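Final report, closing paragraph on structural work. Over the funding period we assembled a curated collection of sequence-structure pairs, and we close with a single example.
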Amino acid sequence: MNHAPHLYFAWQQLVEKSQLMLRLATEEQW
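Its predicted structure, as stored:
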């Protein structure tokens, strides 16, 4: 696939963003 790297990059960005949001949520909860 020619656009595979782009989708992988977008997925990585989404994962990092979700992990950051989850981390902030857990810190606020505690």
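Helices lie at 4-29. The chain has a mean pLDDT of 90. We thank the funder for supporting this effort.
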